[in-house]
Design brief:
The protein is mainly α. Helix content is 71%, strand content 0%. The longest helix has 14 residues, at 15-28.
Length: 66
């Protein structure tokens, strides 16, 4: 599921759905939080490029670790 939600958040037309579903899954499934955080830690560079940031996002940033 984390990969599916990451793809939903990637496209502007489905970003709101991805954000909302991620929030719901974080509340209902603790294992989703772990998987989502690991996935985002591995793809920090991609997240930085998507958000057009110059520096690499820190591991403890809320966009990575929730």
């Amino acid at each position: 599921m984390p990969i599916l939600f990451f793809v939903l958040q990637f496209f502007p037309s489905t970003k709101a759905w991805g954000d909302n579903l991620t929030t719901i899954c974080r509340i209902l499934f603790p294992s989703f939080c772990f998987g989502d955080s690991l996935y985002k830690m591995a793809f920090r560079r991609v997240i930085s490029v998507i958000n057009e940031e110059k520096d690499l996002i820190d591991v403890w940033d809320s966009r990575v670790s929730g």
